[in-house]
Amino acid sequence: MEKMESAPIATAEDKAHLEGLYAGRTAFYGDIHCHPLAGVMPDGRKTLAQWKEKMKEIDIDFVAFMNHRQIAHMYEEEWDDTLFIGGTEPATSIKDSSAQDKSLHFNMFFREPTDLYDLLMEF
Fold first, then answer.
1. pTM for this model (two decimals)
2. Rounded distance, CA 89 to CA 108, Å?
3. Is 37 left (phi over 0), alpha (psi -120 to 50) or beta?
4. Predicted confidence (pLDDT) at residue 5 exceeds the cutoff of 60
5. What Cα–Cα distance (Å) separates residue 24 from each residue in 19, 21, 62?
6. Contact indicator for 116, 86 with CB cutoff of 8 Å
7. What is the average pLDDT value for the chain, to the nearest integer?
């Protein structure tokens, strides 16, 4: 959802279909891989405040932010635990593989900014 103006948005028909599938439950709508313009070396183009506005406009409940190799965005003043899920997107290269693409990106989600620190202290 990086380019907000061109992001695919679920239609009312799409949401009605999903609500039917989740009858008796609450369905939450969001994006689990976004990059904000926040933190030390931001990867995104939109600030957290701009994300909040756009989320209301397109009627989504949450966004998970995955700036590369950092979680500084979770310490920003505009951070909102009720709307945002924090994490990071580390990357690595696979040197001893026959894979054509030797780069690897993966997402790590955290409840608290200190959770990454705690995880790293285990290694």
1. 0.73
2. 6
3. beta
4. no
5. 9, 9, 21
6. no
7. 85
Residues 6+ apart with CB under 8 A from 61: 28, 29, 30, 55, 83
β-pairing verdict for 84-88 and 62-67: parallel
Residue 31's DSSP bridge partners are 63
Torsion of CA 47, 84, 43, 7, to 10 degrees: -80
Residue with tokens 């780069």, as numbered in its chain = 103
Task: State the number of CA atoms in the 13 A half-sphere of 18 facing the CB.
Answer: 10
Tens digit of each residue's pLDDT (9 = 90 or more) over 41-70: 888 999 999 999 999 998 899 999 988 888
**For residue 118, what pLDDT is reported?**
85
Give the pairing of strands 62-67 and 91-93.
unpaired
Q: What is the DSSP letter of 108?
A: E
Give the residue-averaged pLDDT of 11-29.
Answer: 87
DSSP summary character for residue 72: G
Nearest residue to 83 via CA among 24, 34, 13: 34
